[in-house]
What does this fold into?
Amino acid sequence: MTQGLKNRGRTKADMDERRHAAEEFSGAKLPTIAACPFDPQLAEKNVENMIGTIPVPLGFVGPLLVRGSEADGEFLVPLATTEGALIASVNRGSSVISAAGGAVSMVVKDEMTRGPVFRAKDIRHAAEAARWVEENFEAVKAAAESTTRRGKLLSATPYIVGRSLFLRFAYSTGDAMGMNMATIASEAAARLIESKTNTALVSVSGNMCVDKKPSALNSISGRGKTVLTDVTVPRALLEEKMHTTPEAVAETCYRKCNIGSALSASLGFNAHAANMLAAVYIATGQDPAQVAEGSMATTVAEVVDGDLYMSVRLPAVEVGTVGGGTRLPAQAEALSMMDCLGDGKAVKFAEIIGAVVLAGELSTLCAQSAGQLGSAHSRLGR
It folds into this structure.
């Protein structure tokens, strides 16, 4: 297999040739991978060395009633997963949320970040460069925004350690997830900063972004869309549908999500938020690696006036409804199931995601408080 073969074009013939070479090299036969259901050229911006596709089982939950600023109504939400019992569990939570009047969901912050790192002569030089950025923010903003139609630079927060100057750029990226947009814009801004401050750009990503890694900074400050979602489930409904009580669920959440997470020094204080995020991301063409940040959810449960109040805070929901994997046919269809494909839909999509995560959290915490988790996985997931 030559380097030239691996880097050839995107036509079906090119894809088939690469796959045949892979089969010959590995000795494996790949007929299912070969059954690509779309023109490979549609994926030219999504993958290199394409040899086919990997089908992932797709199901849905709902109708899930969401009461958001953009997502207001009942939705069928597609989930792609190979974990048996996941969709059944989230569906159970969805039915209870809907019967309780729906989940209130809102996006309270929407900023994608990129954090370049510069080398300075010393701390004084680094501080002077940071001051220049603050005093000339409009020039930095103009340089960044010259590279994009959608992106707007909102802030540039400095952090100095020795000779290293980090700048955490925050952008509004419209309905795109915006990571590539932020990278290109940050490079343009960084070149201007270099020329004006005599610092040297070491990396356009200095890990203060923080991209695809759990971090306290993103947990506190947010990245992408910060989503809040809550619901109050009446005691009678909880006992009838979930066979548990508000007190039992609240105690399970407290001892598991709060004490257990704190004891293990986890950055995620939740039951299994990553499960729902991964399934939605894969189904809708998002970057599944960003589940690492999305997993830092905080789930709370309280008994309020005898009923169960539950809420989830998701500090880093990094999704888009244009660009990236949303261009692919199946992923576009999955987004269209929720009327979340295209411009003006990203906030709506994030609100739905918040409600789906809450549904999964509610179901799992109820199952654990009632001692049903093992039996459900034994019945559905083995």
Q: What stands out?
A: Confidence is low (pLDDT under 50) at residues 1-7. The beta strands are 58-68, 72-80, 103-114, 117-119, 152-161, 164-172, 200-203, 224-233, 298-304, 307-317. The CA atoms of residues 250 and 379 lie 26 Å apart.
